């Protein structure tokens, strides 16, 4: 974002071999050793501020397509976990973080994407994995090339928010836990229900015994996976 404030026109990719102060959602530390992919895309005025929350879904769909392409994995092994994670065999492989800022009357956005290519953290609230551990050795360079191409194509499909319905369908086609009972951990308390849909704004819809609840933010835990409440607190 500092580059945007300094006047950079955007459409700028920045990659790193490692990060010392990587951050994930809610300011959590993002473990960033050498060997993984760390990439950020700066955009100026990519859309109206009102549809900026859609960018996370655009990036997630592009990420899924990119990883599917370079790994050749069959459908089902890679899945998207609401709102911003990519899973491999139900363990976290990659994540997306979108940050935006108004510079005068112009929206600047940074889309950060991290892929566990060679390493993954052990002490996490949700199971994690990496491509190497899964027997899928893919270098960072081909990963980035596939990702940048996929994101350009997916942005074109999205059309600045005019075609979010298509992106929403793409996301749901790749969703992990859809139709299953899931838990959403939130500061104000956990919610548990069947993940039935995304609403037009991208909120997760839970069916809690016949009552639909829209979730705007939270950490999703799929059924049948152990999580560590102490770490996630």
UniProtKB/TrEMBL annotation:
Gene3D superfamilies: 2.30.30.100, Bira Bifunctional Protein, Domain 2. It comes from Alsobacter soli. The keyword Flavoprotein does not apply. The lineage of its organism: Bacteria, Pseudomonadati, Pseudomonadota, Alphaproteobacteria, Hyphomicrobiales. Residues 1-163 form the BPL/LPL catalytic domain. Pfam families: BPL_C, BPL_LplA_LipB. This is biotin--[biotin carboxyl-carrier protein] ligase. It catalyses: biotin + L-lysyl-[protein] + ATP = N(6)-biotinyl-L-lysyl-[protein] + AMP + diphosphate + H(+). Keywords: Biotin, Ligase. One of its GO terms (molecular function) is biotin--[biotin carboxyl-carrier protein] ligase activity. Its EC number is 6.3.4.15. The keyword Disulfide bond does not apply. It comes from the Bacteria. One of its GO terms (cellular component) is cytoplasm. SUPFAM superfamilies: Class II aaRS and biotin synthetases. CDD domains: BPL (cd16442).
């Amino acid at each position: 974002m500092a580059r945007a404030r300094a006047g950079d026109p955007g459409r700028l990719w920045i990659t790193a071999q490692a990060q010392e102060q990587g951050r994930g959602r809610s300011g959590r530390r993002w473990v960033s050793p050498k060997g993984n992919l760390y990439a950020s895309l700066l955009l100026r005025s990519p859309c109206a501020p009102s549809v900026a929350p859609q960018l996370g879904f655009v990036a997630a769909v592009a990420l899924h397509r990119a990883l599917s392409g370079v790994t050749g994995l069959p459908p089902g092994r890679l899945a998207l976990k609401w709102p911003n994670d990519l899973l491999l065999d139900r363990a976290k492989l990659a994540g997306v973080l979108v940050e935006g800022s108004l510079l005068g009357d112009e929206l600047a956005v940074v889309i950060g994407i991290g892929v566990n290519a060679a390493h993954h953290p052990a002490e996490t609230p949700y199971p994690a994995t990496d491509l190497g551990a899964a027997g899928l050795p893919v270098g960072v360079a081909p990963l980035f090339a596939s990702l940048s191409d996929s994101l350009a194509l997916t942005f074109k499909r999205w059309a600045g928010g005019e075609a979010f319905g298509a992106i929403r369908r793409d996301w749901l086609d790749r969703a992990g836990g859809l139709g299953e009972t899931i838990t959403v951990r939130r500061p104000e308390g956990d919610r548990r229900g069947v993940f039935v849909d995304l609403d037009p704004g991208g909120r997760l819809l839970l069916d809690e015994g016949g009552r639909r609840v829209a979730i705007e933010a939270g950490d999703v835990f799929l059924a049948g996976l152990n999580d560590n409440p102490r770490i996630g607190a």
